[in-house]
Amino acid sequence: MSVLKKDFYLQPVLKVAPALLGKFLVLRNGGTEIARMITEVEAYDGPNDKACHAFKGLTPRTKVMFEEGGVWYVYLIYGMYYMLNIVTGPRDYPAAVLIRGVDGSNGPGKLTTLYGVNSRFNGLESKKKLGLYIEDRGVVVKSSQIKKSPRIGVDYAGTIWSKKEYRFSTHMPTRESFQ
DNA sequence: TAAGTGATCTCT
DNA sequence: GAGATCACTTAA
Known about the structure:
Blueprint: E1 2-3, H1 6-9, H2 13-20, E2 24-29, E3 32-45, E4 72-77, E5 81-87, E6 95-102, H3 108-115, E7 132-136, E8 146-149, H4 158-162, E9 167-170
Antiparallel strand pairs: 1-7, 2-3, 2-7, 3-6, 3-9, 4-5, 5-6, 8-9
The structure holds a DNA duplex.
């Protein structure tokens, strides 16, 4: 049981994304704690990825993605839903992993509603002190249990990038598996 | 299947 | 400042 450190996030996003499956997204707020296993993520890989927000360059919105790995990137989409991403890779390399699903929840919008995540976490470092962080609780997800598929909602990125299998999910059985 | 929602970006 | 866009959800 250990909180993921910065060097974990400094790896290439395509390594970090599948490695996050089976880890726990933890929100600690005073006496309450929400901790659920991550079951679905998507990778957004830097300046070459047309589906990546930062592809078009640095703007006030995307500048967080250019930070060093290990910080949260939170933004509002469709006027209602916050998306939760963790930035990866070295500084000035815009890449991030979108956390799309945790155990017992479907859809990234519902996930952030569940956790009460909003833009106040944007740009902040994922660590215990912040109260929102990712933890390794010893669940091992085998590569054979990881399903790859194209990302969701990125048709605008063109066939090459919208077909990339940068979405990773797992059907690992749930909380019984670690208690 | 389509509508709702609002920040952001790209033009004028 | 106006208009288009958007990594989603819900209700039908």
